[in-house]
Amino acid sequence: GAKALSGKALSGQSTLPNHIIRSLTAFLKDKDMGTRSSAAFALRGQSVLPKETLESLVLLLKDKEYAAAYTLERQPALPGEVLESLAILLKDSGTRSAAAFALSGQASLPKGILEFLVLLLQDKDSGMSLSAAYAFQRQSTLPREIFDSLTSLLKESDVRRSAAYALGGQASLPKWILETLVLLLKDEEWNTGYAAAYTLERQLALPREIVGFLALLLQDRSWGPPSFAAYALGGQKALSERILESLVLLLKDGNTSTRPSAAYALGAQSALPEGILESIALLLKDEDKDVRSSAASALCDQSSLLADSCRNIGFGDSRLRWCIDKRHGVSRID
Question: Which helix (H) or strand (E) holds 83?
Fold first, then answer.
């Protein structure tokens, strides 16, 4: 009804007046499910909600109204009482997945909750397992016992994908774990390879040997590993020219999986050498539309690419011109 419509109308507001938040909190207790869900959705843009509102959202979650989980997930620091309530919901098979998602916005979860999330990582339901993994990704530091539990799960074929994702919040993993993740890039389950690439890409600085292993995988002839390796290398901002040349080759000779990853890794570099820029520019004239598009993407993501550089190298791709115009406020690049 009208209440539901008003909730949807407010959903795009990042800052709501207190009296509006109080009204929406009251709507969370409405008899109509559509009104309750709309009110929860309308509150998603608020970064700090009152405790009363948070408690009402937890009650909705308890009643399996999962719109509440998305609003709770956006809260950067939930009160201890709310965390305890969500911890209880983790033990209910009907609400544990949504409760795990609701907790994923927290940067420092209590050890007791982390221990239970480790158990949920091993759930046979892949959706549950991934929800638990997602809750780990904002934990920049983990208790030693929790960290050891996650790394041991990398050896378990049925949960290694979720374990790899769960380690994504750790930006400086030990070398032996990085080596394990590199091996997982060639796992027979492609989604496990992607999970390993995701965590490798989030590392602040990969050891030279690990970068070397990834560079070798760029030349692998199977479908997944070159794509995963290229994506993982995208987290490193100063790759050698030899690796950059391999990535350019993937733009031209790769497939629909490897080209976007190669474009991402090239675009993520702080500054591409002129020779690499020229090689990518030549691909803008390739007969294959996918090659042209990937080359444009690689150049579009170069934050240091200025209008003068584009004129000098002779970029003429319309998509690239749009990217540069948008980034630098240039009206036209001829």
Answer: helix 80-89
What value, to the nearest 5°, has the Cα angle with vertex 292 and ends 287 and 297?
175
Closest CA to 182 of 208, 217, 223: 217
| 283 CA to centre of own chain | 29
Nearest C-alpha neighbor of 171 from the set 145, 139, 143, 146? 139
Predicted TM-score (pTM) of this structure: 0.84
Q: In terms of C-beta distances under 8 Å and separation of at least 24 residues, what long-range contacts does 310-315 make, across chains too?
A: 313/274, 313/277, 313/278, 313/281, 314/281, 315/281, 315/284
Instruction: Tabulate helix, strand, coil % of the chain (nearest 5).
Output: 65, 0, 35
Other C-beta atoms within 10 Å of 205: how many? 13
197 and 236 Cβ atoms separated by less than 8 Å: no
Q: What is the pLDDT of residues 204-246, one digit of tens each?
A: 999 999 999 999 999 998 889 999 999 999 999 899 999 999 9
The distance of Cα 216 from the centroid of its chain, to the nearest Å, equals: 25
User: In this structure, are residues 136 and 119 in contact, taking their beta carbons and an 8 Å threshold?
Assistant: no
pLDDT tens sequence across 108-120: 999 999 999 999 9
Q: Are 235 and 268 in contact (CB under 8 A)?
A: yes
Taking residue 127's Cβ as centre, other Cβ atoms within 10 Å add up to 11
Task: Give the chain's end-to-end CA distance (angstroms, integer).
Answer: 54
For residue 46, give Cα distances in angstroms to 12, 16, 25, 101.
10, 7, 12, 17
Show the 3-state SS of 305-317. Answer: CCHHHHHHHCCCC
* Nearest one of 208, 238, 214 to 227, comparing CA atoms: 214
Q: pLDDT category, 281, cuts 50, 70, 90?
A: confident
Phi, psi of 243 (to 5 degrees): -70, -40
| Structural contact between residues 43 and 53, judged by C-beta atoms closer than 8 angstroms | yes
